[in-house]
Predict the structure.
Amino acid sequence: MDTDLRSSKKQAFLDLLKKRGIQDKRVLEAMATVPREAFVGLDLAELAYDDSPLPIENGQTISQPYIVALMTEAMQLRPSDTVLEIGTGSGYAAAVLSRIVKQVYTIERHRGLAEQARERLSSLGYDNVSVRCGDGTLGWPEHAPFDAIVVTAGGPSVPLSLTRQLVIGGRLIIPVGQSLHDQKLQRITRVSEDDIRTEELGGVRFVPLIGEEGWRDVEGRLNRPPPGKVEPAAALSEQIRSQAIHIPSIESVDLGGLLSRIGDSRLVLLGEASHGTAEFYEMRARITRELIEKKGFHFVAVEADWPDAAQIDHFVRETRKEPTQELTFSRFPTWMWANRQVANFVQWLRHHNRQADTGDQAVGFFGLDLYSLYSSINAIIGYLEQVDTEAAAVARERYGCLTPWEKDPATYGRVALTRQQLSCEQDVVAMLNMLMQKRLEYSAHDGRRFLDAVSNARLVKNAEHFYRSMYDGSVKSWNLRDQHMFDTLESLLDFHGPDSKAIVWAHNSHLGNAEATEMGSRGEINVGSLCRQRFGETAYLIGFGTHQGTVAAASDWGAPMEVKNIVPSTPDSYERLCHDAGLNAFFLPLRHGEKNLVKELQRPRLERAIGVIYRPETEIASHYFIASLSRQFDEYIWFDKTRAVDALGPEAGKGMPETFPFGL
Ligand code: SAM
């Protein structure tokens, strides 16, 4: 191509970049300076200034210029910066970066491409670029920390190794998606030692990021599991075996060691790796009993709705003998709380309270979740009818705003988003404020009943917001829900006084520290991370895991419960490491664990989470996520083979929820 034609094409190409919104002058200048034709094969030189990706060797591509410019601009670079690029490819993007910053490090997994790019960059005089062949998902620790990192291939999640190699304030630009057809460009900013902020910059389509913390290439097919780089697994399982504290049986195991590791903690968070495994409930019940008896814990708060748990609370404190009109645990998934294991525990708690004869100080049972919008409304109106009939009339009117959507509150969320005048936000906020203003007057009658009413009012306010936020993306609604659970927990602690101590039962995904998992890299918080921030080391976080067995779960939301077989845990997961330790059940101390092992268990690996829904057919994609176990939990409890909970609800054909727990 003659030089004039090339320069006019180049000018058109720069105009196009500006037209598409690239504004950073240094980026435009760098794009103008670097000869893209030198980075594509001779046969493609003519197309070098077309705004399209082009093929290079090893089946890879040189990215579309607009995307290179967009990613470079998104890195918010300064001349003094040191940056890391993952996916050198032709070396073009590295050359562009090298015109803007002080030093560029770039990693390519294909040796041939890495060598070619190194030679090319050096012969073109880009001497502030270092090229290495290797797996970029692990970063380049020797040159870390970096002011910015750009990944030019799409991974299933954000590699933890990369976020950890950013300076505070550093930016990571990376395409992330569960499939190659659905990738979103993300900017992750490391805002503090442990916190990141995630922004979505739009849909993109990149070649796969293949490596230990990316996709795994198994015989040419992409698989999700990105194994952490660890000691050979067998050696690690052996280490686990030597550190594990064996559990011969749930009822007989001596909990003395665990109780001393828990020490003076104010909060003990007991997770679960599914919502339907008997052993998890039984072990949590056993630990809870000891914490109440030996350490004087004041209440149990669980991942259930407030009004349902309130029925249990009445039962265990014997403040009401009969169930109310409201059905208890009648909402899907009933088996999560209406099961034999929970029933046994609440019977024990009632017995304990009766024996201890502590009256108002009896150990309570509370719900943290927010799915009970309408039963909470009914509970508030019922309360006000007894203490203040005028206020009850106001409540009926204000909450009436939500009445039309009772069958499907999610539809309310959608409609309120599009037709703002329909939003009930002001009404639900006003109701909560009204109750708070009357705090002294109302709680003088009965502090516990006021706590119940105000907790329901807070739930209604947050649930209203939750349903509106469902359409803003899963991160926002997840965060609202976990923030609500945490706020409810904190208000319970306040209610019980400055020395109060609580036990929480919820899924691992709520109670393990989200910052140590891929949830954190998506910007999600949870009860565990909030407890860590607020209560530090006085919160003791315990996770649970299993290898195989059966579990109670549904195939879809709202579908009937089934007893499903759990697929044996996948290689490269924490579960497989624990299984290979060869013990049936054990405690694995992590906060107080052996240093080397704890360090190895910090390396990101897969972890399984089964929820209310279990889809073994797509197990890896649906149920595994990346975590750093010893940062996520203070202790891990393992049951190699587990069985489904004994459901008492409709699944058992007994119609139990109507009277649960009173009818037991
Ligand atoms: N920036 C390149 C350029 O300007 O030519 C284009 C990169 S191409 C879209 C993505 C590159 O990422 C491919 O060359 C691929 O081999 C590489 N890659 C994929 N996974 C990688 C990994 N884990 N580490 C390093 N490189 C990787």
